[in-house]
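[audit] Reproducing an earlier prediction to check determinism. Same input, same settings, fresh worker. If the tokens differ from the archived copy the diff job will pick it up downstream; this log only records the rerun itself.
[audit] input (448 residues):
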Amino acid sequence: MLLSAEEGNCLKITKKKLLILALLLIGVALLALFGLGGSDSVSYSTSLVEKGDIFQVVDATGTINAVTTVQVGSQVSGVISELRADFNSHVSKGDVIAQIAPELFEGAFAQAKADLANAEANVAVAAANTVKAKAAQAQMKADYDRNVGLTKSGAVSQQAFELAKANAESADAQVAAAQAQELQARAQVDQKRAAVQVAQTNLDYTTIRAPIDGTVVARTVDVGQTVAASLQAPTLFTIAQDLTKMQVYAKTDESDVGGMKRGQKVTFKVDAYPRETFSGTVSQVRMNSTVVQNVVTYDTIIEFDNPELKLFPGMTAYVNIPVATATGVIKVPNAALRFKPDLPASELRALYQKFGLPEEGDSAKASERSPAPNKPASGPRNEARIVWKLVSRKALEPVRIKTGITDHTNTELLQTLNGSLKPGDALLTGVMQSRSEKSSGPGGPRRP
């Protein structure tokens, strides 16, 4: 259909007006976005105050071990000729678990017994010599006694008397020498008897026996392997006494040991059974400290039952030790304890004065904005802290409180010192702000 000239002009004028109107709307939108004084748009992230239970726990990592573990070694050197136990073998005390080739030790034992027999024969010879010397002594003494009487009557010369006297004294000396030789022979017997005992002991040591009832958890030798015990006893087996009763050696930080007591209930998990939770009891906090990169830790021993033998020695345990519990208390989010609005110092002082907070609370709060790693964000127990409550969309109110225990997510509210805080109140945990470049001046962005 053809349009007249007037209708075409009207259509052109209408399109022109629409284009102008569209440009005006775009300009108004841009002006509202960038040109109206560079207004700020501030939004806060908040968390609600709740009421519930708080369980403060100590998290630690440890290793599962048997209560008693014995390393079985060898007192003598030699070649392993037989093995009667292997990994996971159940053994009883006295069972033969390995044998070292005994031939050399049997020969040494036989030689020691022969030396003992020779020494005993020497004792018999020495005893006979003593008897012989005593008989000669008796004869020489009798000759001397006769010569004494004959010399007084003049029937025997002085020379004969002196000879009889010398023979008697020589006989006494021979008796003493014979007795000394007999004592020496008897001492040789004792020495050879001790050598026999040593040889017998070394021969017995070639048979390796289990010292306790338990399970073999490690074997370090094979048949045909030579063990050398010249400097120290080599380890052949490692036997765990009773795997139904085990322990966790947990490394706990020095700041946590004050809250742990003997008999505390403990829960832990292992990678082998991620969906199961095992329980135990704290039996000991050992005083021997370990320092690694200026971090001081102590060994906490946790005993537990392992009736199904599901847990093995050497597994890593992730331990939770509850040290405090608070039930039915008001819980403050830890993020709120770390939050502080980015306001000028003058505005902070004005807010503190308005709500009756001491000015030194600001300086105390400043030292808490960067808590140490792995430490509760709530700080020490019973410490005064400041949280910021969102009263309206942009109105903030500081509240000074005393805190209790923490579970690293929430902290117990012990007492409200200034202001009021109740379940359902919104506490600031962070701030998110978007602004135009025009709003940034020498004084920074404006705050509500």
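[audit] rerun output stored. Observation attached for the diff report: The domain at 58-66+240-325 is CATH 2.40.30.170 (Elongation Factor Tu (Ef-tu); domain 3).
[audit] end
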